[in-house]
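Aim 2 progress update. The chain analyzed this quarter is reproduced below.
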Amino acid sequence: MSEEILDRAGSAPPVRDWPALDLPGTDFDPVLRELIREGPVTRVSLPDGEGWAWLVTRYEDVRMVATDPRFGRAAVVDRRVTRFAPHFVPARGAVGFLDPPDHTRLRAAVAAAFTARGVERLRDRARGMLDELVDAMLRAGPPADLTEAVLRPFPVAVLCELMGIPGPDRPGMHTWTGLILSSSHGAEVSERAKQEVGAYFADLIGARSDGTGEDVASLLGAAVGRGEITTEEAVGLAVLLQLGGEAVTHNSGQMFYLLLTRPELAERLRADPEIRPGAVDELLRWIPHRNAVGLSRIALEDVETRGVRIRAGDAVYVSYLAANRDPAVFPDPDTIDFARAPDPHASFGLGPHACPGGALVRLESELLVGTVLDRLPRLRLAVAPPDVPFRKATLIRGPEALPVTW
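Predicted structure tokens:
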């Protein structure tokens, strides 16, 4: 990357090391907060890969990079761009590293499952599964690990229902996705788990190539059968969707940690069910759901933004966490405001690579918040807040366990 890049002062902004911090609770990343102050366009070096990359932190700049075709994902393949962990290796043909029109073609194959109608058809089944989990926790009695009893099995069960994964296969799928998303086991273990889950989806999709079901595996199988996408593309998309769903467990863990350590918020939600949909969006905006950043893009031509020239070939990251704290879009952004409207948070991403499961996450989160708070009016932490263990060496933040009593 060229060192001739000029910022507004006429010199290249310094490259800041951004370590993979294991942060407690819902603390906002102190390095990211400094980068926001130093921004709006800075340069960072992450724990793995080579060199440095641009980082944009303001909401409008994040939107611009995420939606502008002058920034592409496909060009990341075969480059050792600085990145969060050694196993976040760009895979050729994976939907996360495709640009339109190929990316658009793949997303279209499963779009029906993620529409509001497609997700809504799961509501009654999802509510029933959640009630069964809460019933079991209540029968066992306090104390309990809310993560193990409810927050982990519920989103996995709902996503597996949407994906079309049979019940007996669901525990193994959860184990695989956990290994893929954690860097604590090493790149080899993560890569082997990714290959195993890919082989599983190849078999499942292949068995449904002439199916007419509404689940994701059936939609992908039908698209492969019609020759619209390849088996490899279908498998890559299925794996990505499955991994994305795992984040709900950790996001909801952070939500409940927040509600249990700020009981006044929980009481507002108990007292006024009508505000829950908006409150869930505000919680999704506020919680620091990830460490560092996700996948990079490459500038395909010179682009100038905020007086900084990003040259063709430079790697660029966006921070959705930073965008969600931009005071130009979210007044008093560090405050949780259940009445905030509008609340155009970027927690599901922006642009063509935005998470397709936003409606599903909202459904799951609303059901979790409403059901758990209503059915356990005396729910509280069973340990002091600093004693709640949080996940380490992982991209998605959240409690490893959430000990509660009632």
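Residues 231-261 form the longest helix (31 residues). Confidence is low (pLDDT under 50) at residues 1-10. These observations will guide the mutagenesis experiments scheduled for the next reporting period.
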